[in-house]
Design goal:
Growth Hormone, Chain: A, globular
Length: 494
């Protein structure tokens, strides 16, 4: 891997000299776009449903799941491709794919094309994000310079989700839901052109091969599993279609495990899971993602479909969450060196679980935001901040320094995949509950109450996932407070 250049300028292969700040702007904008897209579509979902005539929550959830599944499934491959064939090359390829996919999603006339476009966006993001982070560690010299660049990166990553909800609300209300996708096109084009002009190429000459079959198998297997979960209520849980799709998912995922043990450079090096702490952190990340992601999906529907809130009002209702997450994360980072990660790994998910449980217990069609919704969202946010900081430090501290990059990427992928699976499971639970309470569908006089009751049950199952995360991590993670605190200070790149 080439060493980072000192000074404020970069020298390119053709002799050109550019300022490092311009390279930082390019990769920071790209990261903002990738993070935004995980949430920007959420606020637009009710408008998408009306425009494309989609009535099933199980079908709507694919708009979110298609992106998170492909992003998580191809994230590790994106990092390996960047190291092997060139970080800038993979970055601009991802930007181009993101632009094309966003345009296709914006012009989609049916749900199938929109879901396909979202899946392509996820692949584009999985190419861009690890390549951009690796570029930062190459461009900026270790120490104060790199820490400042990574601080900007972390701020964008933390705030991007909230900005996505607000921007999604503005674009949907004053334009159209299609603009939450179209807005990516010029940004991705700027990232493409900016990288070609201001970002030097780099690669790791010692990097090994990359496992494309592994990425395809795990993503296809997870998609088959999600499809079976969301369609189980419609097809029948004992029907041939449901059982056949579950069997296909099992075969694909089993094939993935076999491939990982046989290829020279596996997507997931199973040797890393000899570390109890890494194993506990990664399993915990899956359950944390599974418990939390569906909350945004269900609450947006409660705000807009049940209560008629505007897209902007719905987006702003979530604004306190990133502020509280940031506060909690900052406090937790300070506590790591004093009490270690295990107390935070326990209390973080449990506090978030309490928020989810109280939301499920108290939510009604006409509930007050200030007295019912906000207190629960605040608990979830405070728990998330503590959980994310302790998870990150435990995953990285649990492996040798040279494996820190892949450990961090595994954690990120686990959260994305867990979120996709959790949304599928909670959607299946909520739609089954709603169908049982209102068998007449939207014509049933009890439909709205049944709809909210279904979401409430989903929140309670989400709380159970978070409790499971706390139990798993408390049982497996064994990281000293010194190692955990040090892990947060050391930048990692795949």
């Amino acid at each position: 891997m080439p060493s980072a250049e000192s000074g404020s300028h970069l020298t390119h292969e053709d002799g050109r000299v550019t300022h490092k700040t311009l390279a930082l702007v390019v990769v920071a904008i790209s990261q903002l776009m990738v993070v935004l897209d995980a949430t920007i579509v959420n606020v637009a979902i009710p408008d998408i449903a009306r425009d494309l005539k989609v009535v099933s929550d199980a079908d709507l959830q694919w708009i979110v799941t298609a992106y998170t599944l492909t992003f998580g499934g191809f994230l590790l491959l994106g990092g390996k491709l960047a190291d092997r064939i060139g970080r800038r090359r993979v970055f601009v390829t991802g930007a181009a794919l993101f632009a094309v996919a966003s345009f296709l999603g914006g012009i989609a006339g049916d749900l199938g094309l929109l879901i396909s476009a979202r899946a392509l966006q996820g692949i584009g993001g999985a190419l861009m994000s690890p390549a951009a982070l690796s570029l930062l560690t190459v461009i900026f010299a270790e120490g104060r310079e790199r820490n400042k660049a990574l601080g900007i990166w972390s701020t964008i990553t933390a705030g991007g989700a909230a900005l996505g909800l607000i921007l999604g609300g503005v674009l949907t209300e004053y334009g159209s839901w299609r603009w939450v996708l179209f807005v990516n096109v010029p940004v991705a084009v700027l990232a493409f052109l900016g990288a070609e002009r201001f970002v030097p190429e780099s690669k790791d000459e010692t990097a090994q091969g990359f496992d494309v079959p592994g990425a395809v198998l795990v993503t296809a297997g997870l998609m088959a599993l999600v499809f079976a979960l969301v369609k189980g209520n419609e097809y029948g849980w004992s029907s041939g279609k449901t059982i056949g799709t579950l069997a296909l998912a099992a075969v694909l995922l089993a094939a993935f495990v076999v491939v990982q043990q046989q290829v020279k450079s596996p997507l997931v090096p199973f040797r890393l899971f000899k570390s109890r702490s890494l194993t506990g952190a990664d399993i915990g990340a899956v359950f944390v993602g599974a418990g939390i992601f569906a909350m945004f999906f269900f609450m947006i529907l409660w705000m807009q479909v049940v209560n008629g809130w505007s897209p902007i009002k719905a987006g702003l209702a979530f604004l306190p969450m990133p502020v509280l997450i940031g506060m909690s994360a900052g406090i937790s980072a300070q506590l790591l060196g004093k009490i270690g990660p295990r107390p935070l790994l326990t209390t973080g998910p449990l506090v978030a679980a309490l928020g989810m449980f109280t939301l499920g217990l108290r939510l009604e069609p006409d509930s007050s935001y200030l007295t019912v919704v906000f207190p629960s969202l605040a608990l979830v946010a405070l728990g998330m901040g503590a959980a994310f900081v302790s998870l990150t430090s435990s995953a990285v501290a649990g492996v040798p320094h040279e494996d820190a990059g892949i450990a961090s990427a595994l954690l990120n992928a686990g959260q994305q995949v867990g979120g996709a699976l959790g949304l599928a499971i909670l959607t299946a639970v909520s739609t089954t509950r709603t169908s049982n309470l209102a068998p007449g569908g939207q014509q049933d006089p009890n439909f709205v109450n049944a709809l909210v009751d279904g979401w409430s049950l989903g929140f309670m199952v989400g709380a159970a996932f978070l409790v499971t995360a706390a139990l798993v991590m408390t049982s497996l993670v064994r990281v000293s407070k010194e190692a955990a605190a040090q892990a947060l200070k050391e930048p990692v790149a795949s």
